[in-house]
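Q: What would this chain look like folded?
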Amino acid sequence: MTPRIRADRALSRALRLPPPTNEYRADRGVRVPMRDGVELIADHYIPDTAEPIGTLLVRCPYGRAFPVSTVFGGMFAARGYHVIVQSVRGTFGSGGDFEPTVNEAADGADTVAWMRQQPWYTGTFVMAGISYLGTVQWALLQDPPADMVAAVVIVGNHDFPAASWGSGAFAVNDYLLWSYAVSHQEDPRSLRGIARRLRLRKVLARTAAGVPLADTGRALLRDGAPWWEGWLEHPDVDDPYWDRYKFYGALDRATVPVLLVGGWQDVFLQQTIEQYHRLHARGVDVALTIGPWTHGDMSTRAAPRILRESLDWLGQHLTGRPASRSSPVHIFVTGGGGWRQLAEWPPATAERTWFLEPGRLASEPSQGPPARSTFTFDPRHPTPTVGGQLLSNDGGYLRDERLAERGDVLAFTGAPLAEDLYVYGAPVVELDHDADNPHADLFVRVSEVDRKGRSHNVSDGYRRLTRTGREEPVRLVLDEIAHRFRAGSRIRVLVAGGSHPRFARNLGTGEDQGSGRGMRPATHTIHHGGASVLRLPTGTAIARRGGPTPRGV
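A: My prediction, written as C-alpha cells:
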C-alpha cells in the first residue's frame, strides 16, 4: 500500500467516507480549446483502474490547487473517477477575460465537446461544486448535455441579480468583498498580500461607508473587477443587462438527477429552495440537504457530510446501485432539533399569529386607543449588520442583544413559551407602516431570546421602499427556517431602517445608489392595534428515521 493510499484511507475513516479503491495520477496544464480560439487550462486526474466509474467535471474560477485539488481531484480520482478540474476563462492561466457567469454556458458546452473527443472519456459525466462551481452547472444545464447523468449543486445561484439586488438595495458587503477577492486572488503570496488580507475587514467597512459608492469601490478595486460599476448602475433585476446572469432555463429544462445542498444561514438559501421546488414540480429526481451552515461553512465544517452525500449521489447515478439515501430531503432543525428526514420540503404546517404591540408580541391585539412606535434611521450612522446570511465570515448565528438595544431599532418581545414551538418555512411580518421620507428601507428580524436573556438571530427580511404615505401594510417574507423555539424562550421581532454593510444604506434622497452623495434621515412609524403582525408556519416535531440523530453536522 502506497503512502498516498494510506493517507487517503486515514482521511476517509476520519470523515466517514467510503475507502479509496485505486491509485491515481494527475496530468496538469491540459489545454482545452473554446469556439473563439481561447484555451482554458485544466488538470486531469487519472484513476489507475481498468474500469473507471465515470467522469467528473469541475469548473472553477478560484484556481486548481488546494482545496479543489483535494476535495474533488484526489478524493474522486481515488474512487475510480476521471476528474477534470478546469480554471474558467480569464483565471489561473486560462485565456480570455473573466466576466462573472456570462461565458460559462458556452465554455461549459465547449469543454464537454472536448471531453467527448478524448480516448479516456467514459461516455457519461457528472458535475459537482460549491458556490460559483454550482452556478456554472446551471449555465450548462440550460441546454442539458445528453451524456450528463447527475449533478451536485452546493449553494450555487442561478439568478445573480436576485442575489445582489433582490431586496431593492445592493448587497454591498458580499459583492464588494467577492469582487476584491477575485481581483486579488492571483497576487503573489507576499507579506504585502498577507497584510492586505488581514486588514480587509476594516477596509471593506470603510469603503462601503463612503460616497459615492461607485467611486469608493473603484478606489479599492483599482483596475480589477471591471464589472463593479455596471452592477451598481442596474438596480432593476428585470433590466436586459442582467439576462446573461440568469439561468432559469436550467430549472425549466434540466432532467438529470440533482442533489442540492444549502445552509440556513447561506446567502443563496432562497435560490437553493427555489431550485428544489421548480425541479420537484417537474418530476425531476431532486434531493435537498440543508444544514445549520453559512456560505463559508460549506468548505469547512459542512464538508464531511457534503462529501459523503456527493459520493453517494454521483456513484448511485453512474453505477445504478441502490441509493443509500432513504428520504429525498434532509434538514437540520436548529435550536437543538438536529437532523431530520422528510419526503418533501416544507412539511405540513399551520399558521400562528402574534401582534406587534409597543415593546411586545401579543397573542391578541390591544383594545385601547390606537398606539404607535417610532424610530429614526440616519444614513450618516446606519444601523449595523449583526450576523445573518453573508458571504463573509461575519455572518451566521450571532448574539444580537446589542442590536435590540439601539435607539434606531424597535424590539417586540413575546412572553416565555409554555412548550417547544417548531417552525418550518418562511416567517412573514406585516407592518402598518409609514415614514416621513418616501425613500426608506425596512429590515425585520425574528430572534430567539433564551431564559438568560441572550438573543440570537433566526430569520431576516429586507425591503427597499418608495412610499408616499400610509398605504397597504408592508409584507416582508423572511428567510425560510426549520427551527425549534425552546420552551421558556421568547420570540422577538426587530424592526430597523437598515442593515449596513450587508445592504447598501438608503441615502434617503432618491439618488442613484452608485453616484448619490446626499443623505437624509427617515423617521419610521409602526402602527399597532391589529395590522402589524408576525405569522409563523408552525408544525410538530419531526420523528427521527433510520436511528438516532447523527452527531455533529
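Residues 546-553 have pLDDT under 50 and may be disordered.
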